[in-house]
Amino acid sequence: MPTTDATTQAVLPVFRPSLRAGSRPTLTDQFLAYDSEHPYVYRSLERLTAERIAAGATRIGLKGLFEELRWRLPQGVRGLNNSFTALYARKLIEDHPHWAPAFELRRRRTS
Asked: How far is CA 12 from CA 15, 84, 93, in A?
C-alpha cells in the first residue's frame, strides 16, 4: 500500500505570479510579495475574522479589518495596501471555506 509523505505533497498557491516578462508587477505579484514578507498580517486577519464570527457577525468587510489591524499594529503594517483586501478575503476563504458566507466577493477584472 503506497504511503504519502507530508513533505512531498505539493502545495498549490492561491494566486500565480504574472508571467509577462519585462512588465510591471501586477497587483497579484505585489500581494504575493507582501504576503510572503509579512505573514503576521494574514495571521492577524485570521484572528480578527475568527473573533468577529465568534461574536456573531454574519458579514465582515476586509477594509474594516485592515483599519482595525492598523490600530492594533501601527508600526507593523507598513506597506499594507488597501488594494490587497480582495486578495486577502479570497485567501481567507480558501483556507477557511466555512467563512465564505461572511465575505462578499466580486469577479476580478484584472490580476
From this structure: 9, 20, 15
Asked if 27 contacts 20 with a C-beta cutoff of 8 angstroms, the reply is no
Q: Centre a 10 Å sphere on the Cβ of residue 29 and count the other Cβ atoms it contains.
A: 17
Show the cell assigned to 99. Answer: 467563512
CA angle at 14 for the pair 52 and 95, rounded to the nearest 5°? 35
Within the chain, strands assigned E span none
Q: Tell me: the pLDDT tens digits for 32-73?
A: 999 999 999 999 999 999 999 999 999 999 999 999 998 888
Please give the single-letter amino acid code of residue 81.
N
CA atoms within 13 Å, Cβ hemisphere of 61? 5
pTM of the model: 0.75
